[in-house]
């Protein structure tokens, strides 16, 4: 018998990442049937004609040109000020909105997701993402005592499913005071889908409406009917404007 000293909630934990799993299967199939018989388009890495991993020459040059001290020294925990300013510029470009904006460095993309879940969701609340999603979203939510719900990402014509997003946003905001919505674009993992400008505008409209209805959260109705949803949006906007004159 094996005695585990892991905490009760962590006992027996295991998971296989779908993409790494598919990659392992493709590598095994190439070994078995021949590399010319298998096209491996699983993990997000570029290989050259000799199947060697490609690194962008500029990245390699800058990285290898860094002084050792720059490479090994501690950075401030929240990130170097110059870097943080450049991140904001890169994120907003010429569309930087007026208002308070700050950046903070984290340990990779997973760090961003972790910090966002922890700092923008109360215990027991639900985050939202599409039905195709990067598996660790769920693990991160579960580990921190939060839930993850999904909307159907593509409609029957393989178009981004804004009505499904709107309905879920409305449903969840009928139960909690705010919502963390996770959208992975461009090159969504695992589908590769990128939202078009029109899709993004639709998301912004949904989220702006949500922001406007936040003060009246408990009167938000659950509705999947686009006409009544539009009517409620207009009512919420009128209410918000008259309150904030
Ligand atoms: C959608 C998505 N978010 C976050 C990450 C994690 O990024 P990092 O490796 O920088 O933690 C990945 C990595 O595959 C990803 O696919």
Fold blueprint:
Elements (H helix, E strand, L loop, with lengths): L17 H16 L23 H9 L2 H5 L8 H12 L15 H13 L5 E5 L5 H8 L3 E5 L10 H12 L23 H17 L12 H18 L2
Parallel strand pairs: 1-2
Helix pairs in contact: 5-6, 7-8
The structure holds pyridoxal-5'-phosphate (PLP).
Features:
45% helix
Outline the structure in words:
By secondary structure, the chain is mostly helical. Helix content is 45%, strand content 4%. It is built from nine helices and two strands, in the order H-H-H-H-H-E-H-E-H-H-H. It has a two-stranded parallel sheet with strand order 1-2. Strand 1 (126-130), helix 6 and strand 2 form a beta-alpha-beta unit. The protein is globular, with a radius of gyration of 22 Å. Mean pLDDT is 86; it is low at 212-226. The protein binds pyridoxal-5'-phosphate.
